Amino acid sequence: MPATAPLSTIRSEVAPGRLADVQPPVFHAAGKEIYAQGEPADRLYRVEFGAVRIYRLLADGRRQISAFYLPGEVFGFEADGSHHFFAEAVCATGLRSFARASGDEAPREHLDMALRCLVRAQEHLLVVGRQNAVERIAAFLLDMADRQGGLEQFDIAMSRSDIGDYLGLTIETVSRVLSRLRAEGVIRLVSLRTVEIVKPRALRALSA
Amino acid sequence: MPATAPLSTIRSEVAPGRLADVQPPVFHAAGKEIYAQGEPADRLYRVEFGAVRIYRLLADGRRQISAFYLPGEVFGFEADGSHHFFAEAVCATGLRSFARASGDEAPREHLDMALRCLVRAQEHLLVVGRQNAVERIAAFLLDMADRQGGLEQFDIAMSRSDIGDYLGLTIETVSRVLSRLRAEGVIRLVSLRTVEIVKPRALRALSA
DNA sequence: CGAACGCTTGAGCAAATTCAAGTGCGGTGG
DNA sequence: CCACCGCACTTGAATTTGCTCAAGCGTTCG
Description:
Distance between the termini of chain A: 15 Å
Largest sheet of chain A: 4 strands, antiparallel
Oligomer: homodimer
Order of helices and strands of chain A: EEEEEEEEEHHEHHEEH
């Protein structure tokens, strides 16, 4: 019976290759909206530096971040020509946008990127739907480390609140779990937003 | 500020139109595997009748169903040429398969279906990550009703266990919430697997 | 220097899970 | 045709996990 494949196998990085109508990079300050739910969706965005959050809100303000996008990754996929989600810069972020395919045929590259997003979203569903707080945080840390080159020490651009809204937890629970992992010597918090994975093996064991 | 758009706006139905290499329908008995995680993915499937569940397992057996597919809907999208999930027939099910696009260009239709799947998955993430048990069940019932033609009375092909694994709840919680909705006169359980929405308005109010 | 903000920590609480009986329906066989 | 069996579902009680509320800390910035 199946083990969960590492998220690393589905990186959504892409070479900007044969994508049409590429624009020069645009800078977005931390917290700035990139697009809003309901707006027409006609472009894709490639992260040059920084980070982006894609999210949705409930009427009472609850927020679910469905994905973060890091340098090299492409986002902006939406169905029916309009955005179903919000996109914001998590921190100072540079984006390069390019035209979505239109017409009867789409470049295979677009489809592949969309499919990788889909796999990622569905795998995240497993984390949020069936894993406890420690498992969620462990999976998050491993994913972030992996997507930033697999180094043991790395920065996380996002706040505890962003992490909570991504994992379906409160900021207090995020904080408590990080403290506990630190107390157990699994990770080291070099600074608030810099993590060192001291015991990758232990973390991996916790993540499932 | 944004309200959550109804799931109905992103049906993934499709006319089999210009899709290549369409095969005659294949029958799958309840519980039968359609494909497994790790298998090569080269075909798409259109549900003719019945229902399909797409899921993933954790090592200890916890299961997350990421989607159900109902008649008229298409599934089988996977990245990198292999399946990252399992697909099983929920009940007696007829499927028609056809070839995935290959080569440099993909039919727009494929991209659109994949994108609608993506939006659906991300919206489901909001339900699982940020809504309580009552809200999840209400959203599920409304979604099922909507996808079966919007009638007030409809069958659900799936067991309580399937529903729980889809919504990130235990079967006991699913059962309790359904009982409570029945006690409040919001729904009527015509039989175990047949639901009548008596107060659609109330149910909609509960779903967010 | 003080205010603001993001984060941490603690205590009590509530929602959902776990564990444990029951109930009822559908199917099988006497 | 009815009785029985099995399985899915329901219901209850106790427990646990994560949330809420509240206070305190530390860094940054005006």
